[in-house]
Every structure is written in structure tokens, then in C-alpha cells.
Model the fold of this input.
Amino acid sequence: MMVVFFLEDDASEAQRALIEKRLKESALVNNIRYIPSEQALIRFQQNFPELQGIIENIKVNPFPASFETNISDERIAADTVLKFIQEMKEMRGVEDAQFNRDWVEKMQSLSRLAKAIGLFLGGILALASFFIISNVIKLNVIARQSEIGILRMVGATNIFIRIPFLLEGVILGILGGLVSLALIFLLIKLFPLYLGASLGALTEIINFRYLTLSQIALLLAGGAVIGFMGSLGSLARFLKV
Done:
């Protein structure tokens, strides 16, 4: 969560340094960034190009310099944060502070709901993948009954007969994971282009990013496990060796 401390227009360099020092000494905030008024104006022009005419008409920079800070998630609801913000607002050189705890708590609730829906849909897709792979292996077992019979007659062990089908299930699971990664990549690249500039200031909040290497590895490993379990379940039911 971001808290912005706006500085007075006539704040001196000494006051600005004192405010920055006070922020750095606090254990409640991190990622302290000083935003000069010129940079704030440029950011506004980039986020709201349709309002460019208003800035040109007033012929002055209406945006004050500010300090942008972040508060860790576990501290957002703490009353000590509100007390700290009030103390900062009373410092000389600080004009105002922007912090809406109610809005943050609503966003956190929405985030938890989105995660719950994601886990629910992910579980459904995992089950669907399990049954699809299981049925594919079942069809392959039926189609290769003659080859399996020949392998039995020449003395092939049960494990030897099962391994190709298990590997097939694992490969199918990994391929499914690769396809999903490709679709996620296309979605991240194309969806922001589709929205264009309609997000406006929300581009500062909504950020589309690709999966990390650990998440990619976890997704592929999950696909391999689902493929293995699907093929193992199908072999247990339809391959009597």
C-alpha cells in the first residue's frame, strides 16, 4: 500500500531532508521515493493525455513535490500507521498525506476473493486435465492390445509394459503446461494493448507481469504430476498386467 506525503510549495531543502530522514527512520514504511513537482506533472500527462489542455490553460504546475512510501501488508490495519501519518502531517513542510485505509481493505478483500476463485477454477481445470489424460491413455491401451499381448508372450514385465504409457501421460501434462504458459504470455502482451489508455491512472495499480521461473517450474511440475496420476489411474483400471 502506498502513502503519499505532499510537500508545501515553499518547503525548504532543509525541511525536505528532515522529512526524508524521518521517513527512513520509521520501521513502518519502505521504498521511499522523492517525486519532484516536474516529475509529477510528467506522470499526469502520461496517464491523462486527454486532460493535456487543462494544464496548458493554467500555465503553471499545480502538482506539489511529494514522498511516496510503501507500507507492508501486515501493518496496514495497525493504528500505529494512522498515528505515524498524523505525526508526519504535523511536520513543517508537509502539506497533506494521501492514505485511504478503507479503500485498501476493500482491495485486499477483492484480492482474497480473486485468489479463492482462481484456486477453485484451477482445481476444476486440474480435474479436467486428469480425466482427459486418463481417457487418452485408456484409448491407447485399447488400441495397443495386440502389442501388449505380444509383449506378455515374450516375457515383458508389468513395469516394462506400463512405463511407455506413464511417460506418455507425463509428456501430455508437460505439453499442457507449455500451452498454458504460451496463452498466459499472449494474454499479458495483448490485453494491455487492447485496453489502451482507457485504464488511465489505474495503470499505476494494475500491472500485468509474467510468471517467475519458480512459478513456471511449479506449473510444469504440476502438469507432469497430473499426467502421471491420470495415466496411472487409467492403467490400474484398463491394463490388466
User: Anything to note?
Assistant: The first helix runs from residue 13 to 25. The first strand starts at residue 2 and ends at 7. Residues 104-238 form one domain.
